[in-house]
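Why does residue order matter? Because the sequence determines the fold. Keep that principle in mind as you read this record.
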Amino acid sequence: MALDAVDEPGRRSGEALVREVTAVAAQATILRRVLLGWVRGRGLPPELAADLELAAYEAMANVVDHAYPDGTHGTMTVTARHDPGAIVVCVADTGRWRDGLSDPLRGRGLPLIRALAPEVTVTSTSTGTTVTMTWPWKAA
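Structure:
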């Protein structure tokens, strides 16, 4: 499931971004750029766009690091939409949560996401985890 780095998401106001990729670091990096292009197409202020980009990338990195057993790769799906009054980004996987807190240098991802996004929900089930991040915003 390779992501085409030059794929330009739609720029019409109501068009959502939906991408499913292999949950590896290289794909997360490409998807981060695609998401930023989608965000810029909405006209968000640069500070808000930067917060959204970093929070979403951290959620993608968590999928890469925690969703699938070592040596295996599943998928991650990123969706972004502009709802009335808000930008909503979801990062989902089909793995099982694996806590990396045994390493004292780990475990900062969710606190960072929560610091950057005003509203965050984490839903973890036997079929995967979804992180939903919401930023209030109305287009000018």
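The chain is about 35% helix and 30% strand.
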